[in-house]
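Z., the sequence and structure:
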Amino acid sequence: MRNHNDGMKLPLRLTVILSGTLLLAFTYYHINYQNHLTEGGFVGLALLGKYVLGISPSVSTLLLDIPVLIIAMIFKGRSFVVNTFISVAAFTLFYGLMERYSGWVIDLQGNLPLAALLSGVLTGLGAGLVLRGGGASGGDDILSLLISEWKGIKVGTVFILMDVIVLALSLIYMPVKETLYTVMAVVVAGYVITLTTSLGRPKLNKVPKLQPKLSKPHDGSVA
């Protein structure tokens, strides 16, 4: 998972990361929250906290991400963690400003399929841009990247699988209709993330599975 920034210069890398993060904050507030759609991953947990406990996602996402960032500092390079922290901090700022000052209401409750489609495309594009910039948009993204590398599974597929758990929890608090449309948004987002992160890159071979260290060579020689 090294060199996710495609060799970008620092100003361009920051522009890509901040643009993706701004798009995520816009979508989560103006599309998901305003139309009662939840979300998978840590943001989904944060939105559940907003619905149930009234805690702003700008605070809860930061609290959820900090432990994972510490783990990433141990197992990943400093550049990746710094880029991720920039994205997480920017999301906190952007979402908080929109929550406090934005008077723009995008009412799509009468057309939830459109809301789900927009949510999937925009969040997938936003998260994909952050990944192309060499970071992650949250702690669940870091976990998805790790699993993707270890298992050789597409990043978008891992995102979808991880989101299933949070969406199952959403059924406790959210109507079935809104949750099902959120599933649609998550699936769309997963495909858009895969497209955004792979576009323009050479096709990589699958990561080989780890072999037991004590396995004997086929020629009978001592390893």
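The mean pLDDT is 81. The CA atoms of residues 120 and 185 lie 4 Å apart.

Let me know what you think.
H.
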